[in-house]
Design a protein that fits this description.
- This protein has 16 helices and twelve strands.
- Helix 1 (about 5-25) runs parallel beside helix 4 and helix 15 (about 365-375) packs antiparallel against helix 16.
- The protein is of the alpha/beta class.
- The radius of gyration is 20 Å and the shape is globular.
């Protein structure tokens, strides 16, 4: 076994201490989800306001991850780098991710992950549904899978089985790499089995959304009436600049031009990319959210381009993008809600003090939301998004309910 450097040992020891502290109650790396008694009058009133005006049967969290280690025949995999002490930063990150998901026994990791998610939704009264995201492997330019370069793999079949078993809680989202020789066939099979959307993370999966290689897949999406939910902007799991450029929001003009309904995860609210509209495609680097806002302002995409709110209250994103969205209410009918679960359960990422400082919550609201958080981090994320405001402006009810123009197969 290779010897660890002093820095690797330090990071690994810190990560193990933090993860162990969470598991045994001595630290709060991730938020617990055990019931701690009834909510206070103020917290319950905030929660009642959050649900007011919504039809629970239509409420949809459009960004919920499913991750597993292949236990129980799920078929899921996690990259070796995340499980190896030889890469302690990635090991620590994955350990915290497991803690946030309620996983305490790696031998039962897949079952515990889904069990915790199911429990969180079932004990909410009322409750909506979660769009569970499959995640295809990275593929090379020839369409061959790259398992060693794939951080996560969550097969369509597994997510479809979860949605079929609990249709009152879960909806299935497929993931198919468009360079695969069987991409259209795999898409058709997943949709026939019940998938209502497709998820991509171009930076991590090696997908260029502006490539003609995707055209047949785009045409199939249109024919099957399935939206593409795609990450745009910077992806923290990717370190190569060339891969980060695959997240340029302007690449999405190609699927839009072919009639695809495109949902931009996180509203591309992190990082920057070259301005492809300037200087022959090699213009200055521009904030990714500004490039997203430019796309939203182009009349041709009104009705087919949408933004998704997951992660936008995290400490590394909260601020100018949310302010822009509040200041442009004409965009509100083109927004949908998502949690990016299990990330809302990670303390370092979700800090209500940062949201108050940015001007989107009051101190009283912060206290009540923190109380809800101690009961249920998934409900906390929903209630936070429903409570956010800039002056008297809030996100309207339609942002939080599935709409036929985005998810025509959801019914």
């Amino acid at each position: 076994m290779a010897r660890l450097t002093r820095r690797q040992l330090l990071v690994l020891t810190t990560g193990a201490a933090l993860y162990g502290g969470f598991r045994y109650g001595t630290a709060r790396v991730a938020r617990p989800s055990e019931l701690t008694g009834p909510l206070s009058t103020g917290a319950q009133a905030l929660l009642d306001r959050a649900w007011h005006g919504l039809d629970p049967k239509r409420v949809l969290d459009a960004h919920v991850h499913v991750v597993g280690l292949g236990r129980g025949g799920s078929g899921c995999t996690v990259g070796e780098r995340l499980q190896s002490v030889l890469d302690p930063l990635e090991y620590m990150k994955f350990s915290i991710y497991l803690a946030a998901s309620g996983v305490t026994d790696l031998a039962q990791a897949d079952q515990q992950y889904v069990g915790r998610l199911r429990e969180l939704l079932q004990r909410q009264a009322p409750h909506g549904r979660a769009l569970l995201l499959s995640f295809d492997r990275a593929h090379d330019d020839a369409g061959q899978p790259l398992p060693d370069a794939s951080e996560f793999y969550t097969p369509n079949e597994y997510v479809l089985s979860l949605a079929k078993a609990s249709p009152e809680l879960f909806v299935a989202c497929a993931s198919v790499h468009p360079y695969r020789a069987d991409a259209v066939e795999a898409l058709s099979k997943a949709v026939e089995a019940g998938a209502v959307a497709v998820k991509w993370l171009p930076n991590a999966m090696n997908i260029d959304p502006s490539s003609p290689r995707c055209d047949a897949f785009y045409d199939a999406l249109v024919r099957l009436r399935v939206p593409l939910i795609t990450h745009a902007g910077e992806e923290k799991a990717v370190h190569a600049e060339e891969a980060q450029r695959l997240g340029n929001p302007l690449h999405l003009r190609r699927p839009l031009s072919r009639g695809v309904t495109v949902v931009v995860a996180h509203c591309a609210s992190l990082g920057s990319n070259p301005d492809l509209d300037a200087s022959g495609g090699s213009g200055p680097w521009v904030d990714n959210f500004q490039l997203f806002a430019r796309l939203m302002a182009e009349p041709a995409w009104n009705g087919t381009l949408f933004g998704e709110l997951s992660a936008m209250t995290q400490v590394n994103r909260v601020g100018a993008p949310l302010q822009y969205l509040f200041e442009h209410p004409e965009l509100h009918p083109r927004l949908i809600n998502g949690s990016d679960y299990p990330l809302p359960a990670i303390n370092a990422l979700l800090q209500t003090s940062a949201i108050v400082k940015a001007g989107f919550l009051t101190e009283d609201e912060r206290g009540w939301l923190n109380e809800i958080d101690r009961h249920d981090p998934l409900l906390f994320d929903f209630a936070t998004k429903r409570t956010l405001h800039l002056g008297d402006r809030r996100f309207p009810d339609e942002v939080f309910m599935a709409r036929p123009e985005v998810f025509p197969r959801l019914g």
